[in-house]
Write a structure and sequence with these properties.
single chain; alpha/beta; Aspartate Aminotransferase, domain 1; Aspartate Aminotransferase, domain 2; 2 domains; three-stranded antiparallel β-sheet; 16 helices
Length: about 400
Amino acid sequence: MTIQEKYGFRKVLNTRGPATILGAARVSDPIRKEIYDILGESVEIWELQRCASRKISQLTNAEAGCVVNCSSAGMAIAAAAVLTGRDPAKIKALPDITWPRKKILIQKGQVTGAGDCPVWQVIKMTGAEYVEIGEALDCATFHLRAALDDTVAAAFYVMEDTFAPNLLPLETFVQICHEKNVPVICDAAYLTDFTMLAAAGVDLAIYSGQKWLGGCTSGIVAGRKDLVHACFLQEMGIGRPMKVGKEGIVSIMASIDNWLNRDTEQIEAFQKRLASNIAEAVSDISGVTCTVEKSLYSPSVRLRMEIDANATGISAWTINEDMGRLDPVIKTDDYYVSRGIIIFDMAYLDEGDDRIIGGVLREYLTGERKPAPGKSGASDVPKTRQDALYEMFDAWLDGDPRG
């Protein structure tokens, strides 16, 4: 009996990657073994965190690091750390800030979600005064310089590949902030180059342990030793409800070893074959264009499929929505689906999954498989991605989230 059969939930063919909503990473056997071993032991958490700090420095080249329970928690804890330093009275005072240095800045064009929680909400829960600079599509050096006064505790930078091109680049942002002795916190949850932020002078970098590193639910804060120490001390304050367990700390150490010793050529060759097989299944269908791609934000091979609904008679939105009702469920990277683009990540596919997915896509695109009755039509996009997400969450207990 599978675990899905035992507890009554559907198997997922995950072509989105290590998204939290899909349970994050598929943790490999060697990492699971170390998690299993620590679960049967008692340990002093400070000592385990000190061991983790050495491993994190090995991965990132940062002075120190600590483990948190996810990257969103890391953002809140890092914000708290720059507000309080190692002062226990200030740590205990948050979110009530009575001292002058309490502003945290971010470029308006980088206001995104920490998962699906707004980044400003994660920052403001510390009591910080949240300040956006620049405009949605542009931020200039004069915007940043004008905002950096002696009331600013830190500036946030978000590493992403979908922002407007005229925002300040990381190197410029760091240089100007450091001219005013303002530390830079960088959200790099999906970043796969783990050394570039230390090299750029970022003071605190936040990485996910449950995404590409392949650990269980966890996050990493890496950077300046004094600020990392202040992050750890938030355990005495607002960091307490976000505490990480021994299993999360050990999973970071094990996943770093796994990451540094992985066979990237073998992994990439396998994933390219799967992506090619899915693309080949629909290669003769007019209105479908497939491209294999990689990026700084994904170590895995990804298949980008553009669907012209006028030619195929069915939209990317409809296909993507209906695949979420199948058994097994097929989940994709759906951020661009309203533009006719579905992205399939190969990271968590097994041998044979490519044939299932390719066959299902071909059935939709040839008209052999019809979407569930009463659902969105070929050119009808009635809601946004977050509308669909809310409807699913709202129906999770008593309704039908697959609707």
